[in-house]
Amino acid sequence: MLRFLFILLFLNASVYAQEVGILKYKGGGDWYANPTAVPNLIKFSNENIKTIITEKPESVETNSIDIFNYPILFMTGHGNVFFDDSDIENLRKYLTSGGFLHISDNYGLDKYIRTELEKLFPESKLQEIPYTHPIYNQTYKFKSLPKIHEHDGKPAQGFGLFIEGRLVLFYDYESDLSDGWEDEAVHNNPAPVREKALQMGANIIEYVFKH
Questions:
Q1: pTM value surpassing 0.85
Q2: Among 8, 77, 119, 131, whose CB has the most other CB atoms within 10 angstroms?
Q3: Contact assessment for residue 9 and residue 71, using Cβ atoms and an 8 Å cutoff
Q4: Which residues form the DUF4159 domain (predicted)?
Q5: Total domains present in the chain
Q6: Could you tell me the residue range of the domain that residue 37 belongs to?
Q7: What is the CATH number of the domain that holds 191?
Q8: 113-163 pLDDT, tens per residue?
């Protein structure tokens, strides 16, 4: 039912403004990192793929019923993440009911988030998503995930969690997508790099709203 409502909202985008949320998680990590990222992505999506998303995203706690107000949640940070039992129950229900979570590793998140995802869905493992998948082939076509910053010489990768065949989570690793969405002055990324990052972010939003 929740998935149906999300799709219905997308189809009626000309009438209803949609909202996206920023996940406020426990553990002490900087869930609030990259404050200009999601607002910039919303602006780009509204202008280029004709979404109508409320300009200012709201933060929402993992164990709050309010997460069900958002078809997509964004999550980033550099440090520790911890999901307690109430977080796991709520987030699992959200994702299996039609919600979607995008996680952007802001360098340092990886060793924490993988452990928490195993707690969230112990029966499912992160899988690298092939570039034939629709998430890479929305308005914009990608044959590789944009790499915004270089850290360890590793390739940028997109991982996903699939529940009953449906992609419920996209995790960009060694890509720093959300850094690429930030104001230019924050990281001094070249315009073409920021453009690619925003295009991939718009693809994620478009995929979620259509599927």
A1: yes
A2: 77
A3: yes
A4: 21-209
A5: 1
A6: 2-210
A7: 3.40.50.12140
A8: 999 999 999 999 999 999 999 999 999 999 999 999 888 889 999 999 999
